[in-house]
Amino acid sequence: MLVNTKNDIEAEFVRIIRKYPECLKAVPILLAIRSYEIYCQDENTALTYRFDKAVQTPEQYVYFMRETGMFDMLREGIYHDLRDYVSGVEVGLDSNGRKNRGGHQMERFVESFLKESGATYSREITTRKLSKQYGLAFPPDFAPNKRWDFAVKTPGHVCAIETNFYTDGGSKLNETARSYRLIAEQSRDIPGFTFIWITDGKGWLSAKTDLHETFSVLDDLYNIADLEAGLFTRIFPR
């Protein structure tokens, strides 16, 4: 039976996970995630949810389901045949769509601080557009195919911002650090341009050497603690 009202679906969800907590294991697969741990953050919370067992409170799981849009999808009857849906998810789990999910959350998180600072910024802007829009003289080999997460315009200066968040280690972190180290070195000779990298996550514990090497050449490398300490208000004064 399809549950149509917000109160009914949330109350029913709580009833089910209290009686059958093992049902929580189904949540990650519905989101096309193979891990039972999902890190989520927004302007209110930052928490690693566990779905292999009921670690969080029912109210916290309700918040997760509501904010990720899971309740909306269930309410609208998208999952007419759950088995077919899950099969489709399994087929798509190896697609590009699942890459760096934490990074997309990080982008939204960083943007909330940009809005709060009152900075003038653009989202997802290419190197070519940066050059054309702001008159920046980039070398021919400078990140020609790069799409920056954000660009902030200040008087006489432009800052390009990249953001990401890694819950797990792996070669991707090493590649990212090396890539951004090259960008940092090239940026030094571009008048009116600054590269800013904001990253975080326990994944970096396995790639500390690469991160440290990038930090040695990139002055503007920050994390979530820097954002919460008023980074943008300080470097982008109104």
Report on this structure:
The structure is a single chain. By secondary structure, this protein is an alpha/beta fold. It folds into 2 domains: 6-98, no CATH class; 101-235, Trna Endonuclease, Chain: A, domain 1, CATH 3.40.1350. It is built from 11 helices and 7 strands. β6 (193-200), α9 (208-215) and β7 (221-222) form a beta-alpha-beta unit. α1 packs across α3 and α8 packs parallel to α9. Mean pLDDT is 81; it is low at 1-5 and 79-101.
- What is the radius of gyration? 21 Å
Strand content: 15-25%
Secondary structure: number of strands: 7
Shape: elongated
Q: What is the domain total for the residues?
A: 2
The CATH architecture classification of the largest domain is 3-Layer(aba) Sandwich
The SSE string, one letter per element, is HHEEHHHHEHEEHEHEHH
Strand order of the largest sheet: 3-4-5-6-7
Brief overview:
This protein is α/β, with parallel strands linked by helices and 238 residues long. It is built from 11 helices and 7 strands. The protein has helices at residues 6-19, 26-30, 58-67, 70-75, 82-92, 101-117, 127-134, 171-187, 208-215, 224-228, 231-235; strands at 37-41, 46-50, 120-126, 147-154, 157-165, 193-200, 221-222.
